[in-house]
Amino acid sequence: MIGQKEINTVGDAFKFVAKKLFHAGIDLANLEARLLVSKTVKTSPEQIFLFPEKEISASELKELKNSLIRRCAHEPIAYLMGEQEFWSLRFFVSSGVLIPRPESEIIVEAILNCVPEKDISYRILDLGTGSGCLLIALLSEYSSALGLGIDISKCSIEIAEKNSKINGFRKRTKFQLGDWTMDRDKFGGPFEIIVSNPPYVPSSQISALDPGIFNYEPIQSLDGGVDGLSRYREILEVGLALLSESGIIALEIGIGQADKVIDIASSLGHNLV
Ligand code: GLN
User: Fold this and answer.
1) Per the confidence metrics, is the pTM higher than 0.85?
2) What is the pLDDT of residues 137-185, one digit of tens each?
3) Closest Cα to atom 4 of ligand 1
């Protein structure tokens, strides 16, 4: 795929990778080429432009070729880079966790709007924590809060722990392997803040997801059961048991699910904000 004879410098590699990505239908081909080359040669993306004449070794070229093949097959760039930014923080990701999405920042914003007092020692619960991004973003805002992240996947717990450490929140976070339908008595609480980005894609629509999502991201983080709403019923019930008296729950929902999730919440007796 990459003829090593013609590609001797990072500049050559960048041009080659950008072209291949473009032809594979990758939207941000230039940007991604810069990221992939810079990761491979362990430098910053800017250096690729500043020093295009820097040599690229045969082993780096081989590694780059592997990344290129994976990206051309539409593996998400975040898995190839091993990280994703969320709430201006860096999160380590691997194929065992859902990649943090910019739209999930709305959950953090919603909590910030509803809970303006920042230096109280809130207890925050994140159900289905994945990479830990929601919980860690909230802890970055609420400087005295303590967070508990629950996930059914061991891999997620390991990654979330790593993320709390690299972002400096290890002392204020705890991650616990568990199933929120069975283990909620072990979560402690009550919690002033509960958040979740649960799996909400109806099972029948999973195979129609973008192949970059369907083929690479953990289905268990996406599949919300027959109507996509199963996890909301469970979480809102957990909320009844574990939320403090004036506590608040913020949940990410899929398109078209708002009315149904509101119905579930009201029928359980939650007040809507
Ligand atoms: N937003 C995700 C998607 O792109 C779904 C995430 C979820 O189910 N929580 O499909």
Assistant:
1) yes
2) 999 999 999 999 999 999 999 999 999 999 999 999 999 999 999 999 9
3) 213
Q: What is the pLDDT of residue 115?
A: 97
Question: What are the strands, taking DSSP E only, across 168-242?
Answer: 173-177, 191-196
Ligand 1, CB cutoff 6 Å, lining residues? 101, 197-201, 209, 213, 222, 252
Which of 74, 84, 98 for a ligand 1 pocket mutation test, highest count of atoms within 8 Å of Cβ? 98
Over the chain, what is the mean pLDDT?
A: 96
| CA dist., res. 22 & res. 24, Å (int) | 5
Query: Residue 1 pLDDT more than 70?
Result: no
Q: In which region does residue 189 sit, left (phi positive, over 0), alpha (psi from -120 to 50) or beta (all else)? A: left
- Tell me, in angstroms, the distance from the centre of ligand 1 to residue 99's CA: 9
156, with CB counted inside 10 A (0-12, 13-18, 19+), is buried
**Amino acid identity, residue 218?**
P
